[in-house]
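chain below, 121 aa
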Amino acid sequence: MVRGLGWLTLLLLITGLGMSFGIAPREITQGNVQRIMYLHVPAALVGQYVAFAILLVASLGYLWKRSAAADHLAQSSAEVGVLYLGVTITSGAIWGKPTWGTWWTWDARLTSVTILFILGL
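prediction:
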């Protein structure tokens, strides 16, 4: 069953990429640069919310029960969260260059996510 889920995930990933690059209409103001949002926004949501929420719950579970499994889950979730934050920062910079004219601005959101990324390394 796990092998079947892997193939289904791969099929859905290819379908989603095909739809985002081939079927989704081009945005009027930003053009094709807007298509990076199909990667950027989900990576930000997974990195900042899902992975770190699991990290919080698993860390609390470790502190409460001293379970090694909860500690391993927390460590794994932190690694996945840092990976997704790296993808978020990179794809945001790629989107920001043609949109804002610069790779980086010292916006509070960008800076706080980068600090979270650096702390996770």
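The radius of gyration is 18 Å. Residues 68-100 form the longest helix (33 residues).
thats it, cya
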